[in-house]
Amino acid sequence: MSPDDGMTVPDHCVQALDRARRNSVDTTGALAVAHTRDSGSDLYLLVYPDRIELASTGGLMRTGAGREQLPFTAIDSVTARDRLIRSVLEITTGGTTLSFSAGRSTAAYLAGLIRSRMTAAPDNTALLNHLAELHAAGVLTDDEYAAKRATLLEP
Q1: Whose CA is closest to 44, among 74, 21, 71?
Q2: What CA–CA distance (Å, rounded) separates 80 from 94?
Q3: What letter would DSSP give residue 50?
Q4: Could you give phi then psi for residue 117, rounded to 5 degrees?
């Protein structure tokens, strides 16, 4: 877990990463991890370079366990709202708001990280590799390959 924006990772995120790994939550590639409990279930918010994921280990007998992905392109806004003791990270997408309870420094950190990822240039590495494979297989002509590659590399 190492963000690329120079922000200091709060201790809670480091502890949440350890807790997630102990609970067999895959955190590979995550820039940040946060943890909270809701109705007896462990909930994790994972921030990746291109998306966020909400993972639940479930309650009794692991009912309700699962994982949802939300690409940054689908997020309309993100806000950290201070409450009496903790903060709530609110992520709005398509008129729906996802609320995630966190400590104040953690919520502010996650909001900043998510906002920075929302405005970051997309990582087209996978698309470029796939494009090269199509070209090598003869599916794309040299001209088609060059045009599509130029489009993906534009700022």
Answers
A1: 21
A2: 18
A3: S
A4: -75, -30
